[in-house]
Write a structure and sequence with these properties.
Blueprint (H helix, E strand, L loop, with lengths): L1 H6 L18 H31 L6 H25 L9 H34 L4 H4 L2 H22 L1 H5 L12 E3 L2 H39 L6 H37 L4 E3 L4 H21 L1 H11 L15
Antiparallel strand pairs: 1-2
Protein name: Trace amine-associated receptor 13c-like
Main location: membrane
Subcellular location: Cell membrane
């Protein structure tokens, strides 16, 4: 009987202070670990392909793809952090309290930067569809890079300040050994909720409602030949509309994956994030980072072509960065 109880502890040698494991049948545990590890590996691999594609091929150096590159970078790191979430599936944290605090802070920063990038993508599509004549003057590569940089710096500063207490005194909120708990005070939690969820989601939804209203009106105009446009203008409009639909799918999938986590936060009585008890919604949150490059593969021919060039090592050929893939 004692052996059974010890098997249920994260640290059997610490009988009085160890946390208890979440006990599952062995076969189910193995299946969960294999599945989540595969998702983590796929997430890292696919987003690395996105990063290499946009960074290497000069033809892909445009404002929209710079935003996709930022999203790919954040998704890549999310894939790496997913390994720590897998560790917590059984409710045990086997690393130090300092690593726990660092993991949660990095998780906050990276996911916040990802959400901020989604907002930038929505703004980019809004300007491209609703003000196409001034798009190239308003949205430039330089401005896109500045916005992405500010997004990452803002995410890092905001969450480093919000979680500074946990960084200064890691592990002080743990109730037992083997727990990874981070506490955010009420005001900090409210600020984080507004900055990381309510504000961005509101902006994204409002902009995309406007974008798709314009897309529908443009589609009707083109079908009825009301708008007297040249063939080149028509192709340009179709290209922008296709890009808006594709990135719209990215945004919708993003909202589906992210909303459950923040809904759990909203319904909580305290601004308390216990990673072990929110494993499911966190895994769904992380799953979004795996789905984004799959969406690119389905809708973007240039991504499929660049994958082929990368896998076959043709990008190592001198001058390959000038290859036409669009």
């Amino acid at each position: 009987m004692n052996t059974l109880e010890e098997d249920e502890l994260c640290f059997p040698q610490l009988l009085n202070s160890s946390c208890r494991k979440i006990v599952r049948p062995h076969a189910i545990s193995i299946l969960i670990y294999i599945t989540l590890s595969a998702i983590s590996l796929i997430t890292v691999t696919l987003n690395l392909l996105v990063i290499i594609s946009i960074s290497h091929f000069k033809q892909l150096h445009n404002p929209t793809n710079i935003l996709l590159l930022s999203l790919g970078v954040s998704d890549f790191f999310v894939g790496l952090l997913f390994l720590f979430q897998i560790m917590l599936i059984d409710g045990c944290w086997f690393l130090s309290d300092q690593m726990c605090a660092l993991y949660v802070v990095l998780d906050y920063i990276i996911t916040s930067a990802s959400i901020g990038t989604m907002v930038l993508i929505s703004v980019d599509r809004y300007v491209a569809i609703c003000d196409p004549l001034h798009y190239h003057s308003k949205v430039t590569e330089k401005r896109a890079k500045i916005c992405v940089t500010m997004c990452w710096i803002g995410a890092a500063l905001c969450h480093s300040l919000l979680l500074r207490g946990n960084l200064q005194h890691p592990g002080r909120y743990n109730s037992c050994s083997g727990e990874c708990v981070v506490v955010v005070d009420y005001i900090g939690g409210f600020i984080d909720l507004c900055v990381s969820f309510i504000g961005p989601v509101t902006v994204i939804v409002v902009l995309y409602v406007r974008v798709f209203a314009v897309v529908v009106s443009q589609a009707r105009a083109m079908r009825s030949h009301i708008a007297a446009v040249t063939l080149q203008d028509s192709l340009s409009v179709k290209s922008e509309m296709k890009a808006a639909r594709t990135l719209g799918v990215v945004v919708v999938v993003f909202l589906i994956c992210v909303c459950p986590y923040f809904c759990v936060t909203l319904t909580g009585h305290e601004s308390l994030v216990n990673v072990s008890t929110t494993a499911f919604v966190m895994c769904l949150f992380y799953l979004n980072s795996c789905l984004n490059p799959l969406i690119y593969a389905l809708f973007y021919p240039w991504f499929r072509k660049s994958i082929k060039l990368i896998v076959t090592l043709q990008i190592l050929v001198p001058g390959s960065c000038e290859t036409s893939i669009v």
